[in-house]
């Protein structure tokens, strides 16, 4: 073989390598730092083995930071991410802005009709899906059955707030480091305000009247916020104004909470014997209602995967979304970690699966809680908006976070409940007038 031939062959080899490198697609995926998403990252070899031309890069962020980063990127057409983890609040708003790609071309075996109707509707605009649900949730009470028995209290399947406050007091043993109740205190429209809004709804409150006037000066809001602060100050853990979902999950798993009222998705983690010290003594109940009030304030949420219109690899991104939210992925989780760990709240077939029903004692309560949500009527009063634990308007991110900061400050003792409510009333009305909602 002549030197020229070797040179030419070498050039061909280099060219082939260059072409292979050029064919490699990198997907940058923005996601939240919770257990289900971290589990997904650990299982992605199943995807990359079938897609050797796709490389995955992860940007895993705390919930408030994730919301800020993805909102800024998509609103400015930044193109930083190919797949975004977003929720039922963002999807219809962003889809109407043409910021998201429609997921109307998913593989036939994806079986869109298997998605729970409430979740599919929440993630669609004009019957077109714009995000695929990774897991769905409502909210419920998780409690220590052993502590309740020792304290001589009963938590019914459909408790009232009086039941909850009585149980919280009875189960509190601060000398032993056990707190009767753990609730979100970390400020954020999707952190403390998700819980407090749901609680206020169950007290008969509403964010706005039909003229878009804020209602924080109402008796219902005053009663809900005062009861929330009382429970947390008297029966809650120290430093609760910094606690969000992950912090309370850790406290409950460590046996520090008698009760925790939060997202139904947590049930799979608090009953996991590998991570939870109280896995064999957890009971479940529906989100509480106020005595005499026919509204449990359930919320509806789905952490979902969406493809921004700014992605430069939309087809590869859709392939990943289809994989991560498929029935096949659910089966993969079950094979690797058991059916109890399967992503909940997205598919009818999961709740018809006898193996899941047997492995997940919380399955029926989760499905019942999600099915009970009416996002068109979160309050018993007349309202001009939809939503459950949020108000489905673009301005809510800023407004909700500002109000959440006020209530977190009240929990930390920096302002009184009366001051927090007054500040919320003033700042919300100011922003709504500025946005053109009020005359």
Detail the topology: elements first, then pairings:
Elements (H helix, E strand, L loop, with lengths): L2 H21 L1 E8 L2 H8 L2 H6 L3 E8 L1 H13 L7 E4 L3 H7 L20 H6 L1 E2 L2 E2 L2 E6 L1 E6 H7 L9 H11 L20 H11 L16 H17 L9 H9 L5 E5 L3 H4 L11 E5 L14 E6 L7 H11 L2 H11 L10 H4 L2 H6 L3 H9 L24 H16 L5 H18 L5
Parallel strand pairs: 1-2, 1-3
Antiparallel strand pairs: 3-10, 4-5, 6-10, 7-8, 7-9
Q: Helix- and strand-based class? A: alpha+beta
CATH architecture of the largest domain: 3-Layer(aba) Sandwich
Terminal-residue CA separation: 86 Å
Order of helices and strands: HEHHEHEHHEEEEHHHHHEHEEHHHHHHH
Number of structural domains: 2
Q: How many strands appear in the DSSP assignment?
A: 10
**Rounded average pLDDT:** 93
Unreliable spans are 1-22
What's the CATH topology name of the largest domain? D-Maltodextrin-Binding Protein, domain 2
> The biggest beta sheet, please?
5 strands, mixed
**C-alpha Rg (nearest Å):** 24 Å
Number of helices: 19
Percentage of helical residues?
40-55%
| Assigned CATH superfamily of the largest domain | Periplasmic binding protein-like II
Classified by CATH, the class of the largest domain is Alpha Beta
Strand order of the largest sheet: 2-1-3-10-6
| Shape summary | globular
Strand content: 5-15%
Describe what you observe in this structure.
This protein has 439 residues and is of the alpha+beta class. The chain folds into two domains: 167 residues, D-Maltodextrin-Binding Protein, domain 2 (3-Layer(aba) Sandwich), CATH 3.40.190; 222 residues, Periplasmic binding protein-like II (D-Maltodextrin-Binding Protein, domain 2), CATH 3.40.190. It is 44% helix and 12% strand. A five-stranded mixed sheet has the order 2-1-3-10-6. A three-stranded antiparallel sheet has the order 8-7-9, sandwiched between helices. Helix 18 packs antiparallel against helix 19. The chain is globular, with a radius of gyration of 24 Å.
């Amino acid at each position: 073989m002549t030197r020229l031939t070797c040179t030419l062959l070498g050039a061909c080899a280099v060219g082939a390598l260059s072409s292979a490198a050029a064919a490699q697609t990198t997907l940058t995926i923005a996601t939240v730092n919770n257990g289900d998403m971290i589990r997904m990252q650990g299982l992605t070899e199943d995807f990359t083995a079938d897609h050797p031309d796709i490389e995955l890069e992860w940007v895993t962020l705390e919930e408030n930071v994730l919301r800020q980063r993805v909102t800024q990127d998509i609103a400015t057409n930044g193109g930083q991410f190919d797949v975004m983890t977003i929720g039922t609040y963002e999807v219809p708003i962003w889809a109407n802005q043409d910021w998201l790609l429609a997921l109307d071309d998913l593989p036939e075996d994806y079986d869109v009709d298997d998605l729970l109707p409430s979740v599919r509707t929440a993630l669609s605009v004009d019957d077109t899906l714009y995000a695929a649900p990774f897991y769905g949730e409502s909210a419920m009470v998780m409690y220590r059955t052993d502590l309740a028995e020792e304290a001589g209290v009963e938590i019914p399947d459909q408790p009232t707030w009086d039941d909850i406050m009585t149980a919280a007091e009875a189960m509190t043993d601060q000398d032993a480091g056990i707190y009767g109740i753990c609730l979100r205190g970390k400020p954020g429209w999707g952190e403390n305000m998700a819980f407090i809004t749901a609680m206020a709804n169950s007290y008969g409150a509403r964010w706005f009247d039909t003229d878009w006037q804020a209602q924080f000066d109402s008796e219902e809001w005053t009663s809900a916020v005062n009861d929330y602060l009382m429970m947390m100050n008297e029966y809650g853990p120290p430093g609760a104004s910094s606690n969000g979902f992950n912090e309370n999950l850790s406290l409950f798993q460590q046996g520090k909470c008698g009760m925790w009222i939060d997202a139904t998705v947590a049930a799979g983690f608090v009953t996991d014997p590998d991570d939870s010290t109280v896995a064999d003594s957890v009971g479940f109940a529906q989100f509480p209602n106020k005595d005499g009030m026919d509204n449990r304030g359930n919320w509806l949420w789905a952490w979902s995967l969406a493809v921004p219109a700014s992605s430069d690899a939309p087809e590869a991104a859709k392939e990943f979304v289809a994989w991560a939210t498929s029935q096949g992925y659910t089966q993969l989780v079950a094979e690797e970690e058991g059916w109890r760990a399967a992503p909940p709240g997205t598919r009818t077939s999961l709740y018809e699966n006898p193996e899941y029903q047997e492995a997940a004692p919380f399955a029926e309560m989760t499905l019942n809680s999600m099915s009970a949500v009416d996002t068109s009527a979160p309050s018993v009063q007349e309202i001009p908006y939809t939503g459950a634990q949020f108000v489905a308007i673009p301005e809510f991110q800023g407004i909700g976070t500002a109000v959440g900061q006020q209530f977190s400050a009240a929990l930390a003792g920096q302002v009184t409940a009366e001051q927090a409510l007054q500040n919320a009333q003033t700042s919300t009305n100011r922003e709504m007038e500025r946005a053109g909602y009020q005359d």
